[in-house]
Amino acid sequence: MSGVEASAASRIEWTRAVTMIALRLGALVLCGSLELLDRPRWAEVWPLPVVVAALLLSSLGICVLAGVRGVLPSRALLAADFALVVVACPVIPWCARELGAGRWPTSVLPYVLLTAVMIGISFPAYPVVIAWTAALGGAFLLGQALGTDQPWWTALPHVAGMGANAAMAAYVARVLTRNARDLDEARAEEVLRTAQLSEERERARTARVLHDRILQTLEALVRDGWIGDESVRARVAEESRWLRAYLRGDDGGPDGDVLAALEAVVRQAVGRGLHVEFNASRLRASPDRDRIPGEIVDALAGALREALTNVVKHADVEHAVVWAEVQAGVVTLSVLDHGRGFDMGERPDGLGISRSIIERVASVGGTASVEAAPGEGTHVSVRIPLPG
Question: How many whole angstroms separate alpha carbon 227 and alpha carbon 234?
């Protein structure tokens, strides 16, 4: 479950819990006042005091649980409570018939009608709501037939009212649930749009700074002849072109193609005097090549650029081997040199392995490993699973 769904579910459950507490307390106050004002002697007939006390304690217990936990009690506990009401419907008029009044106690009908509302908000599935409402209505009809002097069908309007109450409560609960979820999703989308807008503004600001200062300086160095070394001037020119492409949002290579992006990095390394043996025949022929996302292309190109830069700066060799392929939904990139290497336990500063290679690859769900030893060269291996 996502954060948005979890937040919506939590708020919905809390709303249901508060509604349940309000309904039950309201029912107890209403029915208790009616009983006291009308015929308090109902409670004198055994076992009516036990039945009424059971209903009272059950409702108060559910109120306490809902208030403490902030959610509705378990379905089993709610089912037990509703089963108690279903049993009480025929028991109360059957016991009260001894008074010879030939009618229901005043408090029974309001409590049963409100119980139908509670059923509607307690169960998520309509068939369960219908089943419990039917059981409640049948019990009420049975009580009418056993404990009063009126025909059982005269209670049908009350049973219809129970069905209407349950159906309306179930429908309203589901509408409110859907609206709450939609509202949370809309808020999440708004937060995302705000974050994206902020990111775009920051990128635009950074692009202006890079263009007005760094890019123009690099291009001026190349254009105005400030650099005498031809290889250095070619390197600066290549970096200037890359930076301008980056500011246009086109730094991932032609059309974001992974092979083109890797070849561009290799050309940069060759321009710096490194001989690179690039083996990508399996990548070139792979049917999965065209479905590699742009973020994975960027991560691979960045990791390769950093690895070849390390070879140029630290390996003290002029040759490196690069191997790339896609197999079984995994992109693999390997960079090997037979230079002076280094001690993995004492990784020298400036290699950029952790941030530029390992963290970059991990950000797109891949893994990168580096093997090196003094005098034995360095091997960088990257594996990134394709999405889906």
Answer: 10
